[in-house]
Amino acid sequence: MVKINELTYNYSSGVQLNFPDFNLEKGEQALILGQSGCGKTTLLHLLSGLLKPTTGKVVVENENISLLSGAPLDKFRGASIGVVFQIPHFIEALTVKENLTLTQSLAGKSKDVERIKSLLLDLGIESKLNSKMNALSVGEKQRVSIARALVNSPALILADEPTSALDDENCDAVLKLVREQAKKQNSTLLIVTHDNRLKDQFDKRIEL
Amino acid sequence: MNILRLSWKNIKSKPLSSLLSMLLLAVGLSTAIILKLTEHQLTENINNTGKDVKLVIGAKGSRLQLVMSSVFQIDNPTGNINYGFYSLLKRNKMIKEMIPVSMGDSYKRKRIVGTNHDYVSLFAGELKEGVLFEKPLEATIGSVVAAELGLKVGDEFVGGHGMEEVLHSHDEYKYKVVGVLKRSGSVLDNLILTPVQTVWIMHAGHAHDSEYTLGGAEEGSHEEHAHEEVVEEEDSHEHHNHDHGHEHHEHVEVNLDSLLANVDPKDREITAILFPNLSGNAKIGVLNNANNQPNMMAVDPAPEIALLKNKLTPFVSIIIAISWFITIIAMFSVFIGLLNSLRGRKYEIALMRVLGASKAKVLVSILFEGIILSVLGYLLCLILSHSGMELIGNWMQNEYQYEFTGWIFLTSELTYLGIAIAIGLVSALIPAYKAYHTDISETLAK
Fold first, then answer.
1. Complex ipTM more than 0.85, yes or no
2. How far is it, in rounded angstroms, from Cα B99 to Cα B309?
3. What pTM value is reported for the model?
4. How far is A72 from chain B (nearest CA, A)?
């Protein structure tokens, strides 16, 4: 399902990063661990096609995304990969519902408000459907960003330090939600983190 | 949630900056449109009013002033000429039509014009109710006069001497409204029409201290004939009165007729004579004849109007330049507004790309923002320019007795929609290009 092979990336400064090969099955949940500066975010950008690898290949759902570019790559990413960022960012001019319908339409899917409502219900923020983004707390925002990563039922969900900005209580809740939801729709989940609170909860761990 | 709606939401989320851009654009374009509306109506008015007058004879003075006062009813008259000259020309078989006009009095700032029925036909005036004036002191009024002063058939009013401010009122005689004209879009709408004899009666006894005697009484060789003619005309007028005069106002009419008969021919004055349909030799003949009179001149209105238009050109150019200046500032305002708003939204642009938006889609969304702003600016400009024109029109009507309205729409206004969209596009170009080239990975990694 997700496979990286002899993947390297050269920064413009000349520094080269080498990534260990790994392979994830469909529905598998894994952790990528590493200290700051070891290339966690770079790997995540390589996996989502935001960066082009110098050598090696990234295969997501039998698609070698290293070979894709331009609009087809954007389209593939929108439809097959959901991303949860460390700091949740949204289109501030839109409400929760509008941010999620925009996510549906940018991925080329039709607007499905029922899907959005049931997701928000699962995440415990159903009352925030029509809220402005700036009216939400950090924890609520992170839940909306999980909803955004899940709304198109992507094959792969990538999470970049999803819990590092949260307190213990929210950390547990958010982690639990994202794992449950990924499992529910059988998406592969890959969490990139240096947050040791997560370490023991995953069987599959990849150290950078 | 499509891209167009997203652009709209982004504009709405920055109401002040968006409003400023729209307002600047609207003010710039409004200035240009108001100018266009004014020019259009002025030209139409000038054409409607001036096109059928081929020659004007009046007292010596400014040629333009004579045309403005006696054809367009704007300026003050240059003075008066003796009615005798009119009577003399009446004998000329080559002249088919001539219309006397006599100004100087007004009622509540509406000009009273002594004339004949041809004046009404000259501007294709039609009666809405009542009849055209026949006897002295009868008045047929224009549609605007009727509406603004609330006058109707049967009403009476007291006129006064003077056009802008009434110097003294002629309260010994009352005008009686006998007819109201339909709206014609010409000078008729703002005038009170009455026979020229009314003016003589009003000014009997006052004539010599009136300011219009300055260019008045003629001492030419045609005087003798002229007097005879006047007397003949009075006779026919008297007969006419006898036919109708027994029903009412008999007492007044007898007085009026005797009064009229007592008006010294020297005091029988008119302000100007208008000649419709005069051309060729007849025109040259009349022109020479009038110009040979010591206190008279004949003026062809067409070149005077052309001269006036030329005089206005620099002012029009200045206003056009100002409107462009404001419009260009508006363009910068849209540009800076978009650039500022995008600076804060760099992460959002990257986010859209992660969510599947192509570079082109991001580019289009920013261009849409520019276009939406400019189309809204244009709509605002339509409201501003037309209500502004209506306001200016009301002011001009009070000031110049000339009617301008904001409630007409020209097809050329649509070209300003094109200009507005072009401005929106051009000012969004650089911001859109920047968004197009956003480095997503770098932006997200920050």
1. yes
2. 26
3. 0.76
4. 8
